[in-house]
Amino acid sequence: QALREVLEGLQVRSQQAKPGDDDLADKKHPFWDTQPVPSLGEELVVVPPDEQGPIDPPDIDAVKKEPYTLPPSFTWANVDLDDEVQAQELYSLLHENYVEDGDQMFRFDYSVPFLRWALQPPGFRREWHVGVRVAQTGKLVAFISCTPAELTCHGKRVQPGMPPSRAVTSEENKSGTPTDKPDAAPDSSAGSSSVVASDGVEGEVAPSKAAKDSIVEVNFLCVHKKLRSKRLAPVLIKEITRRVNMREIFQAAYTAGIVLPKPIARCRYWHRSLNPKKLIEVGFSRLAPRMTITRTLKLYALPDTPATRGLRPLRESDCADCCAKLNTFLQRYLLTPQFSLEEFKHWMLPQPNVVYSYVVEDVETKEITDMLSFYALPSSILGNEKHSTLHAAYCYYYFNLKTPLSKLMTDALILAKRADFDVFNALDILDNSTILKDLKFGIGDGHLQYYLYNWRCTAVQPQEVGLVLL
Ligand code: MYA
């Protein structure tokens, strides 16, 4: 009981998850009200299966062939992350202008290697890394991006007319079915369907069919602080929608801290202190009533080494097996991605300071029974004299076929602490809510909403979500 009081008394801050309003149904959304998304007032409690699907039917002929018009003095410019200068420009735009917590104490600080990982998965397209520059100076002032993905919602592929997933699962893996699907889409830079139009925008001469077996995940929408509230965000969203539609894709998934029409799920971040002293010093958490710093350090202390026998980093040679096991595991959830082998390798193979993945290999049978992963997303600490960066690890994908989740996740905490992270964050998705309290996570102060674009379906509970967006 005493421990519960301490944990419940802890104030922990969530970024991106700003306090949400529950009764926003009447709020007008001049832009979103024109888009194929359910309105805030619409009931999504039970959408009958035959009504689940696209809100607008796909209509390739209706897709605008020219880019949307930007306000005078701005131009569209794709951001090429393989170019050091452009990668640094995107880093700086986000470093200075991206998501902050409600009290403006922390701002996400995605690193360049992380941005490359997040934005260049198999099938990525440079035309989907959409920048806006000041025409005269070339300064990058806004950005939006998306990457291809395969998503299942209530057991149905989130694409009209698509058969059930072609991603490999454990069953197929056993029966020797090929372990990969074709590339979602070749990089446009390597293909021939992309041209540079006269206005400098990389556009398409004709719609391509290359990528239409994927949907897209949208992320990193950012407008420079000095250009806020000028309705630039809707232009960015419409332009990326157009570019995606040109590839015959009409659905998307995204998350946001704010409530827009209309979330399919409302989730919460939980935070596990690894370095409580620093977290208190920077105002991320505070000393609970009746707690001393010594008692707090003791409360959050962790062993030096993981407890699970056979735990080791994920290797390339594990990937086919682990990809199949993860895909099968994720099918327990109502909103979930499915990975091709190539995608799995991209998202899971360890990269220092980006993504950390471990497996449990049974010491006798050599079988892989469990996998855990987390990614590194630091935040800048704004206006603190002693500390400038908060090192946060975020729970990513896992499967546990043998090790209890609390044990596996405790090992994740130990590994994250050993890698010098200050805090371990997890949403209440997957099976996380079964272990968060026991593992001394404190609840964050807001929500993270999940959205689908142009797809109506029954809303899902956090514990039914199997999708992690970066
Ligand atoms: S979530 C992270 C979003 N980024 C940040 O929070 C960074 C800091 N903030 C900013 O940079 C700006 O405040 C942004 C808005 C850019 C967010 N998602 O230009 P405005 C609507 C969607 O005057 P600004 C992420 O990256 C708002 O409700 N819409 O506003 C996922 C209003 O519309 P309405 C948003 O503050 C992004 C309109 O914009 C968001 O200067 C998924 C106001 O425009 C938001 N997070 O700029 C994008 N915030 O009047 C959707 C505000 O109707 C993808 N708005 O209420 C949709 C699918 C597209 C692909 C489809 C393919 C088929």
Describe the model:
The protein is α+β, with helices and mostly antiparallel strands. It contains 10 helices and 21 strands. The strands form 4 sheets. Strands 1, 3, 4, 9, 10, 11, 12, 14, 15, 18, 19, 20 and 21 form a 13-stranded mixed beta sheet that branches. Residues 1-11, 17-21 and 175-211 have low confidence and may be disordered. The structure holds tetradecanoyl-COA.
What would you report as the Rg, rounded to the nearest angstrom? 22 Å
- Quickly give the structural class: alpha+beta
- Summarize the biggest pleated sheet: 13 strands, mixed
Mean pLDDT reading: 89
Task: Give the uncertain stretches in residue-range form.
Answer: 1-11, 17-21, 175-211
Task: Produce the secondary structure layout.
Blueprint: H1 2-9, E1 74-78, H2 84-97, E2 106-108, H3 112-119, E3 129-134, E4 140-149, E5 151-153, E6 156-157, H4 170-174, E7 194-196, E8 202-204, E9 215-223, H5 232-245, E10 252-256, E11 265-273, H6 276-281, H7 293-300, E12 311-313, H8 319-330, E13 335-337, H9 341-348, E14 355-361, E15 368-376, E16 379-381, E17 389-390, E18 392-395, E19 399-400, H10 405-418, E20 423-427, E21 442-453
Parallel strand pairs: 9-10, 18-20
Antiparallel strand pairs: 1-3, 2-16, 3-4, 4-9, 5-6, 5-13, 7-8, 10-21, 11-20, 11-21, 12-14, 14-15, 15-18, 15-19, 16-17
Tetradecanoyl-COA (MYA) binds near residues 218 and 240.
